[in-house]
Every structure is written in structure tokens, then in C-alpha cells.
Request: fold
Amino acid sequence: MSGKEHAVRAAAHSSQLDVAHRQAVAAAVAGLQDPALAEIRLTGPGVGSLADAAVSSATPFLRAPLLAKMSAVAALHPAAGNADGFCGTCRIPAPCPTAEALQW
Ligand SMILES: [Zn+2]
Reply:
């Protein structure tokens, strides 16, 4: 992968994370304002900031298990393949589709 391709993929990945963060904050705002919470329901101009803080502090804990699994998958499907140039798991020339999906 060229440097330009890597930069394009990194930008797309960053954009996806931004979208995911905004969606998570919107969901948190809705949850904090849920009428079902009755007297502990939050309202007012600070709800968005509280939701953003909650999502920002929780995100690393949510990502850690996913990143650990992605690392395990990458070890099973090395982009460069084994010494013979084949993916040891898929037994096809590297990079296999799984290794390509993990590239960013
Ligand atoms: Zn593979």
C-alpha cells in the first residue's frame, strides 16, 4: 500500500470514528433525557456536555476488547504471510482478504 493509499484509509477511518462518536453522544443525550428516568432525568444545556464526557471516558474501555480481537485476527492472518508468502490460516497467497480488511 502506498503512502497516499494509507493516508486515504486513515482519513476514512478517522471520519468513521468521528461519526461513531457523534452517534454515541446523540444516543447518550437521548438516554439521559429519557422520560422513563422520571425524577432523575437530566435536562438543560449541560446534557450534551455530560453525554460527550460520558462517551469519551467510556470509549477506551469499549474499544479495548475489540482491538484485542483485531490483534488476534491479525496474528492469524499476517499481511506479509508466512515465510512461504502464504497466509497460514487461509492457505492462499498473502495478503488474504482478512488481512486486507484489517489494513487502514
Ligand atoms: Zn488469512
In short: The chain has a mean pLDDT of 91. The chain has one domain: 3-102. Residues 3-102 form one domain. Residues 77, 87, 89-90, 96, 98-99 surround zinc ion (CB under 6 Å).
